[in-house]
Write a structure and sequence with these properties.
The complex is a heterodimer of chains A (338) and B (151). Chain A is an alpha/beta fold and 338 residues long. Chain A contains 16 helices and nine strands. In chain A, the strands form three sheets. In chain A, strands 2-1-3-4-5 form a five-stranded parallel β-sheet, with helices on both faces. In chain A, strands 6-9 form a two-stranded antiparallel sheet. A two-stranded antiparallel ribbon of chain A has the order 7-8. The longest helix of chain A is centred in the last third of the chain and has 15 residues. Chain B has a single domain, classed as 3-Layer(aba) Sandwich (Rossmann fold). With 151 residues, chain B is of the alpha/beta class. Chain B is built from four helices and four strands, in the order βαβαβαβα. Chain B has a four-stranded parallel β-sheet with strand order 2-1-3-4, sandwiched between helices. Classes of the chains: A alpha/beta (338), B alpha/beta (151).
């Protein structure tokens, strides 16, 4: 996980210290200095610059101009702490820039900080501020009603996946793991990966929790933490795929997309499966006109058809007559026969 | 038809379309030898290729069992199956295969006894027909060596 670097420039030691503490407590890396020049030797450019403008001697605006003129810093977002609101013209000239009026409220400053930074950095805030696993799940759309669960197990008894032979499947236990903060156990649980969002449990849950949404949120965190799907997902034979897009059109989980890539030295468009989304239902395999996409092992075309043919052969009253194999005759060159 | 024995039926069943334990037991181990049960992950997995292969092998009837719309375990797999297999059935009937030979049973997962009933009904219907002869090639499918799927 990359942590964003923030430069804090203020001539007042106290302001620097307070700002630095507040930001580093929220998972940001900070470098503090009285003047911009002190920070120049550092070779990694920051993701954000916070400048205390308009101290009595007005050195702040000079620092702002210096930031905007430095080639490495021209596009870095800027937050100015100001006593008077800057004019619109000045703000536009300094884009991307925001301002917070002094005395700066911590929450106001933080909200400006997070809206200046790209979204992906928010996750580092959550981890650094010691958000529990449950809180992180609840922060993802779909996972909100996690705390409503009182572990009755109605979801377990209404789920079809257990009946299909997966005895370890248990949404109730998964929710308990999340509530107890067992992060690794929750990510490795097969329940996280097997839920296909059929929503059979949703109308039956007495607490009206959208369980597949909660599991989807846990899955999202698991993918972010680098875990892979625990089920066998569809695979594409890129040599025969013609990129007709039928599978991408049909996939109920939008797991198949068409991508441009090099196959056997040629630039081609082929189907590609997102393993974290694929639920291995096989709709793509049944519809592929060139038999180029299949879920490996159990339900391949080959496996199903040979099983059926074995049965046909067993039950046919008259045994099959194997078609006569015609041996290939090598053509004899005419000069050899004379 | 009596001299040829009971009609052979191939049943494709979505693994989520039968809920009750006893019925699962019956489907997996207690079927007579002239009924072949193939369980697939979703009715959407049933390729027209499977149906065609069975008919080419001389199977009298193919029963396709999936979930009713909006009850699909994979959101919309049954709709995909219905769309393509329905069209394929009318194509087969255009080629001279009787429509009764391909039958659909869209069941609610909570319905009990429906699938066994469907097999019985189908057997009855097929008994009144002649033995399947249309499109029968009797050339067994031969897998072409090692599969070459990129994993």
């Amino acid at each position: 996980m990359d942590v964003p670097l923030v430069w804090i420039i203020s001539p007042h030691a106290g302001t620097r210290q307070v700002l630095g503490l507040n930001l580093s407590r929220r998972g940001l890396r900070t470098l503090e200095a009285a003047l911009l020049d002190e920070l120049q030797p550092d070779d990694t450019p920051p993701q954000l610059v916070v400048i205390d403008v308009e101290p009595p001697d007005e050195t702040g605006w000079a620092a702002v101009d210096a930031v905007r003129q430095a080639p490495a810093l021209r596009q870095v977002p800027l937050i100015m702490l100001v006593a008077r609101a800057p004019t619109m013209g000045r703000l536009l000239a300094l884009r991307p820039a925001r301002w917070v009026s002094k005395p700066a409220d911590t929450d106001a400053l933080l909200s400006e900080v997070w809206s200046s930074l790209p979204d992906r950095y928010r996750r580092s805030e959550m981890i650094a501020s010691h958000m529990t696993l449950a809180d992180r799940v609840r922060a993802i759309p779909g996972g909100e009603h996690l705390y409503m669960c009182y572990s009755c197990g109605t979801c377990v008894s209404s789920c079809m996946i257990q009946l299909a032979g997966e005895r370890s499947y248990n949404p109730r236990r998964l929710i308990q793991k999340v509530l107890n903060g067992l992060e690794q156990a929750a990510y490795e649980d097969r329940t996280t990966w097997l839920c296909s969002a059929c929503d059979l449990c949703y109308p039956r849950c007495p607490q009206e929790i959208h369980i597949s949404g909660v599991i989807g949120a846990i899955r999202e965190l698991a993918i972010e933490a680098g875990h892979n799907s625990a089920i066998e997902t569809a695979a594409v034979n890129e040599l025969t795929c013609v990129a007709c897009g039928l599978c991408a059109e049909l996939c109920p989980y939008d797991a198949v997309t068409l991508v441009d890539k090099r196959v056997a030295g040629q630039a081609r468009t082929v189907a590609s499966v997102d393993a974290s989304r694929c639920m291995a239902c096989g709709l793509c395999a049944a519809n592929c006109r060139s038999a180029s996409i299949e879920v490996p092992d159990t339900f391949t075309n080959e496996a199903v058809i040979s099983a059926v043919w074995d049965w046909i052969q067993e039950t046919t009253p008259v045994p099959f007559v194997q078609p006569e194999v015609i041996e290939r005759v090598e053509p004899v060159p005419s000069h050899a026969t004379g | 038809m009596s001299d040829l024995g009971p009609p052979r039926i191939l049943v494709f069943q979505c693994q989520y379309s039968v809920y009750s334990e006893t019925e699962r037991e019956a489907m997996s181990s207690q079927l007579p030898p002239h009924v072949k049960h193939v369980q697939v992950p979703c009715s959407g997995r049933i390729s027209p290729l499977f149906v065609l292969n069975a008919i080419q092998g001389g199977v009298d009837g193919v029963l396709i069992c999936g979930c009713v719309p909006e009850k699909c375990h994979f959101k919309a797999g049954n709709l995909g199956a219905r769309r393509q297999l329905d069209a394929f059935r009318s194509f087969l009937s255009y080629l001279g295969v009787e429509e009764e030979r391909v039958r659909f049973a869209w069941t609610d997962p909570a319905e009990r006894g429906r699938i066994l009933q469907e097999i019985a009904t189908m057997e009855e219907v097929l008994s009144s027909l002649d033995q399947a002869s249309r499109l029968v090639t009797r050339v067994p499918f031969q897998p072409q060596g090692e599969s070459q799927w990129a994993s």
